[in-house]
Design brief:
Strand order of the largest sheet: 2-3-6-7-8-9-10
Radius of gyration: 19 Å
Strand content: 5-15%
Helix content: 40-55%
Number of strands: 10
Oligomer: single chain
Distance between the termini: 24 Å
Number of helices: 13
Shape: globular
Order of helices and strands: EEEEHEHHEHHEHEHHEHEHHHH
Length: 316
């Protein structure tokens, strides 16, 4: 794995309003753009196109670092403090839930030195603002001293499969799944609520009953509060790169994927069958009611309607 190029990026604001009403949070924070983990299926690859780059390996090899992330957020919150006459509780209520790591892993390796995520947490901790964090990295444990005293709604550890071969092929620089399970246990030992984002479930690679049960069982053994599943989503910018990666690692699956993904999501019959299977497993292990929620169904329906008629024109 080569050393990525890091480029400083000045943030005008760090707290970004989430306008999509399907999302269960109000604001997002991403101290970085691009991610060294290099997950080939990552929906956030498309964000590199906003900067005039491709959704290919540039997402892993060219990472933008928002050095002023914490300072920019201090300014945003200070403005709110003036509006609410110094009432921090009112500011926290006005802001609502903040999600960290919606478009890039906030604990990817550069965070070890840059400490931008930690700096942002230090700012948020002073306001009692509710926070969720999504990561694949054990580096989150470095910040236990902060997490223990913050208003943490959940730390979501993303694991798509326990299969090391699949993980290494499609998540080339991400920590192995077993290490991620250990994060959940450690956080729970310190009373920091944590669970598993079973995401994404990969058709033909991690969607069998046996594979999913192995992961759900391991989540239970490591004291996860929840397991939240979601099926692989492939936006047009990401789809082409992911299919190229399939050709390299699983060429026998390429035609199946091209048939299944006429749009951003697989067809509705596949999703319904998959989620019935997942929900039965979740119920069996005591994660009742934590299957695919209504907001996700609406989002899937919305994306599928937008991509109706989309034609696959990739050449391999």
């Amino acid at each position: 794995m080569g050393t990525p190029t890091y480029e400083d990026l000045t943030a005008k604001q760090t707290l970004n309003r989430v306008k999509d009403t399907h999302m269960p949070f109000d604001w997002s924070i991403n101290p970085y753009r691009g991610c060294f983990h290099g997950c080939s299926f990552c929906y956030a690859r498309a964000t590199h196109s906003f900067l005039g780059m491709e959704a290919d390996d540039s997402f892993q090899s060219h990472i933008f670092v928002k050095r002023n992330a914490a300072v920019a957020m201090k300014i945003q919150l200070a403005n709110l403090m003036r509006k609410f006459h110094g009432n921090r509780n009112a500011v926290a209520r006005r802001v609502g839930l903040v999600a960290i790591g919606t478009a890039t892993d906030p604990y990817q390796p550069i965070e070890g030195k840059a400490k931008l995520t930690r700096q942002c947490l230090e700012v948020l901790s002073g306001y009692g603002i509710p926070v969720t964090i999504t990561t694949r990295s054990p580096l989150v444990l470095r910040d236990l001293d902060l997490l223990e005293k913050m208003n943490i709604v959940s730390v979501n550890i993303s694991i798509s499969t326990l299969n090391r071969k699949v993980c290494r092929g499609l998540e080339p620089a991400a920590p192995y799944p077993v290490r991620r399970l250990e994060i959940v246990r450690k956080l729970m030992e310190h009373n920091v609520p944590s669970g598993i984002f079973m995401a994404p479930i990969l058709p033909c690679l991690s969607d069998s009953a046996a594979d999913m049960e192995e992961l759900i069982c391991a989540a239970k053994e490591n004291e996860a509060l929840f397991v939240s599943p979601s099926v692989l989503r492939l936006a047009p910018e990401v789809k082409e790169w992911f299919f190229h990666m399939l050709k390299d690692h699983y060429p026998q699956l390429l035609s199946a994927y091209m048939g299944l993904y006429q749009g951003a999501y697989p067809n509705a019959a596949y999703v319904a069958t998959l989620m019935n299977r997942v929900n039965r497993l979740l119920d069996r292990y005591g994660f009742t009611g934590q299957g695919l929620d209504l907001s996700y169904q609406r989002a899937a329906k919305r994306d599928q309607s937008k991509s109706q008629g989309e034609q696959l024109s990739f050449s391999f």
